[in-house]
Amino acid sequence: MYKKLIHKHWLPFVLGAFSVILFYSTFIIWNEGEPTEISRPEAVKEQADNEVELLFETVFADGISQEETRKEAINSLQDFWYEYSNWQVVDQKKGFVHFKQELLDLSPEVKQEGYLGLSDDQHLILYTGQPEAKHIIQTYDHLSEYSLASSVKLALTKGMKVSSVDELNAIVDKKG
């Protein structure tokens, strides 16, 4: 009697065991492609290796320089160098690049509130702010070195508004 019972139920038992083994092996194979806890720090390290801190230094014709710092991920070195091809590389270290660019333009600060005037010792100066509270940006030669019209000299004592490099150069380049 036991022999008939085992023989009769043997096939469903084997099929059930085979389906359980097949289910677990499929689950194991399916999860093999996902990163495990051991490999995740390496992925983070790889991501941090292509991140670079960039320092952009812009020097304007009036002598003012501005700096901007930012971090950027580099996916392609060729694209990275092409993007910043109009900048000069000043310094480069692992994870850091210092770029510099000289512009033949006035800084935004001088464009907005820049004046040409005279210092107490009669030097031509470029400054920002009102004449009473001026912040000197650049000092040029003594006024006697310049061949300026008397109306321009009078305007310089009060402070002349400067909003472009051409205006600045027109006065600064008039030497006697």
From the structure above, extract its key features.
6 helices; transmembrane helix; BOFC_N_sf; transmembrane; Ubiquitin-like (UB roll); BofC_C_sf; four-stranded antiparallel β-sheet; 176 residues; alpha+beta; rod-shaped; Forespore regulator of the sigma-K checkpoint; four-stranded mixed β-sheet
Brief summary of the model shown:
The protein is α+β, with helices and mostly antiparallel strands and 176 residues long. It has helices at 2-30, 40-49, 77-83, 108-113, 150-158, 165-172, and strands at residues 51-59, 65-73, 88-93, 96-102, 114-118, 123-128, 135-142, 160-162. The longest helix is centred in the first third of the chain and has 29 residues, at 2-30.
Structural notes for this entry:
This protein has 6 helices and 8 strands; from the N terminus they run ααββαββαβββαβα. By secondary structure, the protein is of the alpha+beta class. The chain folds into 3 domains: 1-34; 40-102, Ubiquitin-like (UB roll) (Roll); 108-172, Bypass-of-forespore C, C-terminal domain (Alpha-Beta Plaits, 2-Layer Sandwich). The model is unreliable at 37-47 (pLDDT under 50).
